[in-house]
Amino acid sequence: MSEPHVLIAGGGIGGLALALTLDQIGVRSTVFESVRELKPLGVGINIQPNAVRELFDLGITADDLNAVGLPAREWALVGQHGQEIYAEPRGTEAGYNWPQYAAHRGKLHMMLYDTLIKRAGPDAVQLGAKVTGYTKNADGSVSGQITHADGRETIATGSLLLGADGIHSAIRAQMHPDQPPIHWGGALMWRGTTRAKPSRTGSSFIGLGTHLQRMVIYPISDVDADGYADINWIAEVTFDETEERKSGWYKPAKVADFIHHFDGWTYDWLDVPALLSGAKEAYENPMIDRDPVDTWVDGAVALMGDAAHAMYPTGSNGASQAIIDARTLGAMMLRHGVTPAALKAYDEALCAPVSALILRNRGAGPFGLLNMVNDRCGGDFTNIDDVVPADERNAFMAKYKSAAGFAIEQLNAAPQTIETGAKVTIV
Q: Between the CA of residue 263 and those of 266, 276, 279, what are the distances in Å?
């Protein structure tokens, strides 16, 4: 039998994590990425302990992650008037065996890319090459149609094709031609970073506001000698209007166009208008996802990452789940070979539970506590225990973490997804 070769459509975090995993277990792969040059684009991202564990098992070190972000210490929800709603430690301070990281998405992306090129060689990634469709061949192989940035059209054939090509996936569109359009629930987000002093623990993820209007704030770098860090922020407002307000993905925006939504959001520990005004750049995009599908697999073709399960970012687990996808695919190839059977086993393991997570995030995910508070008191309270008792708050968050795959006890006790040194047997 010839050496297996996996085609990967898309060189984002999920696609690169898969290529690194395949290299680790002895399987050759090629990543096809549409952009001509990878650059450290984007703003903040959270990598949950279950995904950090997998990165460590890939040989990514704490020093590597510290170079692109910092360990998160706290997750907190605060009411619009500054009242405490919920707070809990995160990462190792919560009892996990692995940290949670708040990082710059672009820097993390480039670190994974550089690591892959160093390990697998420069031919592991083809830039300026977009997979636009696929053909399942009679011999069991699969061919991807590749459109190059210079206008050329070529064909690449491999053992399997993994669609890691994002929410606008061409692979998913062919696999599910009747899928509904992208879903938008009315929330618009503005994103940016500002050099400022971090709040609370110095590495806290803070959700501030109401279920209809909120800020998410967290640092993505260590503080400098003057106590300043790169603070990632997301300003979010839910509108009653529908499609006419829908914007493009990461459309440049002016802070002056949305800062008025946060007039008066000034506390003794945080000045939101000043934080927004301090950003050099801001970007606008709708909070969008896709309805779940009943399978991510079509024979020798499978979806992963946002192509499989684009979800609202309310639980900070989109990129983490893409990493879990990659590692699960590797584990299934160790069991079943580089075959459609491995893709089927991956689908059976993840499609249903992650599809449920999409719908849970659409219902506000862990920020659902804000909805609960609003329903009970309209956000006007002095002591949160009088509105939502501590046991109820803790149970709500525990249920979400379990659904998202990073409940502490289960994760700490779970065996490695891929055992150290494991290699696919080539028959």
A: 8, 11, 17
Domain chopping of the chain, boundaries: 5-49+106-181+290-364, 183-289
Cβ-contact 131, 144 below 8 angstroms? yes
pLDDT band at 179 (very low <50, low <70, confident <90, very high): very high
- pTM of the complete model: 0.93
Q: Which residues contact 351 (CB under 8 A, 6 or more apart)?
A: 293, 294, 295, 296, 308
Written as one letter, the residue type at 94 is: A
User: Which CATH architecture is the domain 5-49+106-181+290-364 placed in?
Assistant: 3-Layer(bba) Sandwich (3.50)
pLDDT per position as a tens digit, 319-375: 999 999 999 999 999 999 999 999 999 999 999 999 988 887 776 667 778 878 888
Distance of CA 249 to the CA centre of its chain: 15
- 183-289 folds as D-Amino Acid Oxidase; Chain A, domain 2 (3.30.9)
Query: CA-CA distance, 79 to 374, in Å (whole number)?
Result: 10
* Residue at token pair 């949950």: 48
